Structure of Type IV secretory system conjugative DNA transfer family protein:
Amino acid sequence: MYREYKQWKRFFAHPLFLISYAIVAYMIVTCGVNFLLGTAANLLQGNNSTGGGLGSFIEQTAKNAIHGGDTADTISSLFQVSYLWTFQGQWWKAYLVIYLVASFFIGRKLYIKRMSFRSILLGLKGTMRWTTIEEIKKQYHAIPTNHMPYEGCAGIPIIHYDGFVYIDVNKTNALIDASTQSGKTETFTYPFLDSIMRASEKDSAVILDIKGNILKNTKEEFEKFGFLVKVFNLLDPHLSIGFNPLELVKKAYWKGDVAQAQMLAQTLSFSFYNNEEAKDPLWQQASITLLNAIILAVCEECKKANTPEKVTLFTCAMMLLNLAGEPDEDGLTELDYYFMNLPDLNPAKLSFATIKFSKSVTRSSIYTGTTAELQKYLLENVAKLTAQNDFDFEELSEGDKPVALFIILKDWDDSLNDLAASFLSQESAVLSELAVRSKKSKLSRKVHHIFEEIGNVPPIPNLPRYMGVGLERGLLYYLVIQSFKKLESAYGENAAEDMKELCGNWIYIMSESPDDSKVFSEKLGKTSVIAPNRNGDPMSEDKSYGEQEDSRDLMMPEELTKLVEGERVILRTKKRRDLKGKKVKPFPIYASEDEGTAMLHRYEYLLDYFDKEVSFDELGLESTHQNIKLEDLMLHFTTEESTSKAPDSVPLKAVPEERSEFPMTDLEEVHHTETPISTILTKDQYTFISSMIQENTSSSRFECFKTFETIEEIITFLEAPEHQFIYDQVSYLLEKEGA
């Protein structure tokens, strides 16, 4: 931090000093006037000691000088000290004139001092400043650092001062910018969880615990304070609550809300296959569509057979694996036959419609790509984990006990992280709907979402929306990120910007990204400072000094990168009132080591409670899904020729004989010639083919395409295996136009 220029001379311009100066000046003037007027009266009127006026005084003084008399007695008889405080009432007009003259000179002197020594900081270059500790005491609740229960609700830690942690209990989201090894867990997460435990108003918490250390250190204490601890454990699925990603889809379908089921299935499929960096997004879109169709088909078949327990991703994966096998002589698989024979308005068939327009080779590629993503749900431990729901999300708000729900991931393996994203999205969706349908439109118990390293987890579907509408409902989100770039990489620039704007508290602990420190520095704003200057010859003692108002960042980017352990900077745009309801200006807060307001680490006051050396097996975690038999989750499909069927088997009817031919095959007859493009394709058709190739291939291949002059070259180009999807789309277009 910069060293502030001390303006000690401002003391001489302080109103108290100037008032004191004026009083002393008037006292001196009064005493002087009293003495002069008293002496003048004595000289003019005479007194007992001299026997008469000025002439007598002169005569007596002359005698003393000649005869050696006491001259001092003569003088003292004329100039008496008592005159200083004795008012000469008969001279009141003289007093009035003298006071008027004195007031002019005293007032002029006061004005000169005021203008010479007053502060020239007028805020012309910036008005931002740090919140003082006195203001913090009036605006934030203070809780002791003794790990004992306290009255009130939980809040995020702001600063520590004099044995108390000051917490913000406002309903607002928070963004914590803290890179690796910055102390974010030690100075934010653990103190926050300590507050949640101890508060008399019990809230629930959802904690994204990448390594599982937070669970190990806090589970025992949560249970001591009356919390129900649940763990969604992707590190050890056999020590986890079960979670069926299709649970919400199933509930909507069983209620007859097919539209809602379709939307939920679409959201889930999108989270599985969406890839912003994909060069050919059509394959991802095809996989999303196919999985939607399979999910809806499984729901339909299970609803008919009254087997809701079979609506699982394992069932969907097995359906795709079993039916999308070897194609017949027509290039169709049993999966194609199944969907083709569903009723025309069946939602599963409608979802499958896009797939059926592709050629057999392309469909095979789509099936392969879709199966690859679902392969993990065929693993025994994952299949059982996702086969049932062991925890009702509504318990977070409506349960008899507050809940601490932990989500544990593998920090070295991202293959199951999309499952965690779906878990968190569905949790927020369930609680949002619960709040909307309640009488007060809010949850009975607030739910705090502490998402550590959220940038390292696949994007949680609809998270920006939940953050925007969740505050009044009692859903609060705290995003602990390593950098803004990490957040933007996961959610996209626009969504990340929305999420940042939805956070009323921005806490900077430490960041390795220069961009982050610049952003925080800009948001802190400018402050005005006094910039002194000195002029004169370098070797001369005769120097002239001056001062001028200048501006600087309240904290520069490079200063932010040098915060010591425990220090932090808080931007709090949503803090508008103090504890008594009075309006306040939300100036930023600097938790400073020098001011004694730096935040404590866990080891400084919580080590006796949050330091447990245990393994996951020793935590007493239980699961019920390990006893599930996977064969009981499968649907058995048979053809009409089968002589026997299982009770829940699904018939596959014969395929209609009429199938459309792709018009591109008609063009293959001209392979032996060189047919100009313009004789076969219209300008619009050629433009469409060009745009498809430009969007879905590399720039070099597109440049190659632009050199083609004949239909034969285009067909040969499109028949390449890697261009099958484009080939199918072009064929479909030409068929519709009757080309």
Summary: Residues 15-45 form the longest helix (31 residues). The chain has 28 helices and 16 strands. Residues 8-117 form one domain. Confidence is low (pLDDT under 50) at residues 47-51, 639-648, 653-672.
